[in-house]
Design goal:
The chain is an alpha+beta fold and 190 residues long. The protein has six helices and ten strands, in the order H-E-H-E-E-E-H-E-E-E-E-E-H-E-H-H. A four-stranded mixed beta sheet has the order 1-5-9-10, sandwiched between helices. It has a four-stranded mixed beta sheet with strand order 4-8-7-6, with no helix packed on it. Strand 2 and strand 3 form a beta hairpin. It starts with a helix and ends with a helix.
């Protein structure tokens, strides 16, 4: 990571951003074990690709557990190498895309009150954290071990959805070498 062609084709600028992605527990397990597989993606407003947003709450809208506030949800925090991004005007979509338009490495469009970023090459995506959260004030950590899908390993953070708690728990659980990345993530969100 990132895709080796992007820096060369984009004047040395890989245009790396941090974004959020919500999906089902089965899809998350597959991503954690095998990485993103764009061929398994559903078709969205900008075709078949990996969809991300910089807005935690917008990503939550794509959670399969969206209607159940006490359900434990999964969200991936990823770095994406966007390279040169094609911006779509408000109200413009291109559902037939299976790769970025000619001369671009990604697309960005305004959907449901916020931007979504789409990449079509899984080598442009680097999962950093898997976040388990819910929208209740219960002690999620005490129940979390029962809600983790089998086989999930790696960087896992347990949170409730209050953003101040999210930031605090993310910082508490980060190792010394992860702290600079967490501070940048929080700065981008604040």
């Amino acid at each position: 990571f990132p895709s080796h062609d992007i820096p060369r084709q984009n004047g040395g600028n890989a245009n790396i951003i941090t974004g959020y992605h919500c999906t089902s527990s089965n899809a998350t397990r597959s991503i954690m074990e095998n990485g993103f597989n764009i061929s398994l993606s559903r078709v969205g407003f900008f075709g078949k690709g990996g969809y991300f947003t910089k807005n935690f709450l917008k990503a939550n809208n794509y959670s399969p557990q969206k209607g159940n506030p006490s359900a434990t949800r999964l969200m991936l925090v990823c770095n994406m190498a966007l390279g040169k991004t094609k911006d779509f005007e408000l109200g413009r979509f291109e559902r037939e895309l299976v790769k970025a338009p000619e001369g671009f490495h990604s697309v960005r469009g305004f959907i449901n009150r916020d931007y979504e970023y789409v990449v079509y090459d899984q080598n442009q995506i680097c999962p950093r954290y898997l976040v388990f959260y819910n929208f209740t004030n219960t002690a999620l950590e005490m129940e979390a071990s029962r809600n983790i899908p089998p086989g999930i390993q790696g960087n896992i953070v347990f949170i409730t959805a209050a953003l101040s708690e999210f930031f605090g728990k993310l910082q508490q659980r980060a190792t010394a070498e992860q702290q600079p990345d967490i501070k940048r993530l929080i700065a981008n969100l604040s």
